[in-house]
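User: I'm writing a short report section on ligand binding and want a predicted complex to refer to. Could you take this sequence and pseudouridine-5'-monophosphate and write out the structure as tokens? A short remark afterwards would be nice.
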Amino acid sequence: MRESLRDIVSIREDVRSALAAGLPVIALESTIIAHGMPYPRNVETALQAEATARAAGVLAATVGILDGRVRVGLTRDEIETLARADDVIKVSRRDFAFAVAEGRTGATTVCGTMLAAGLAGIPVFATGGIGGVHRGAEQSLDISADLLELARTPVIVVSAGAKAILDLPKTLEYLETQGVPVVGYRTGSFPAFYSCESDLPLDLRADSPEQIAALYRTHRALGLSQGILVANPVPREHEVPREAMEGHIRRALQDLESQGISGKAVTPFLLARIVELSGGRALETNVQLLLSNVRLAGEVAWALSREGGVGRTA
Ligand code: PSU
Ligand code: MN
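Assistant: Sure. The structure tokens for the complex follow:
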């Protein structure tokens, strides 16, 4: 039996018609719901992200896999399911076919969500922070599949940079090697997720959503197939300064090692531990930077649709 894409991917009706009409749509991920934040803050945040998009006149399609079906545009109940169930697979590119073939329920990472957004024809995606090259990668070779997906799927990913738990210089080097444009939004330095800036300069900068939309169009017109990473610093009033974060990160990394955690459990463990160590402050920052990214992604989606039809990804 040959399965067609339609048998596997369900695009919610309102999302489908918005895309057909060239109206602005953004994709949202679900790993942040299932593995990135504690219950019930995860559900509240996911719904708040969708409401923030709506307030900006943009439709948000949260992506996930329910009982083996890829859903582009989850319902409230489906978001609740992903947030509560404890057997939700963290779905990256390599897990995608497995989750579908086995009829499983899964939350998509940045990598998995880009893949689904590309299939659905949604060119803009808002997340918190992408995965990247881990500290100590010269030993562990732990490099997030998010970076490889950015190298192969032409979706604009609006983020607050890469998570500060990572090796940020190596993450930028890797993206450069893979030909992924990294664009600072109103900044000349790579944001460090919880903090507005790092000491790492960026070569590309945009000061308006229209500039990002124009860059994407040109990128596609040239036949370039990489994604574009937009690095949007967390709003200043919500940042945790780097010196304050660094202590928590070092401690969390020590705990990671002493507990012998590896593989896909690494990032969820570190994020949860840092929330604990910061007395919840890191969680607040994480929520706020996500909402800020949703607003910017919405503006970029508007800019793309104004210029006549959305920039198709396929
Ligand atoms: N950023 C957050 N919270 C998260 C993640 C990123 O603020 O939960 C998730 C994203 O889904 C990202 C994933 O794609 O962590 C990266 O995991 P890994 O390092 O295992 O590739
Ligand atoms: Mn990893």
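A remark for your report: The pocket of manganese (II) ion (ligand 2) is lined by residues 142, 144, 266 (CB under 6 Å). Residues 281-306 form the longest helix (26 residues).
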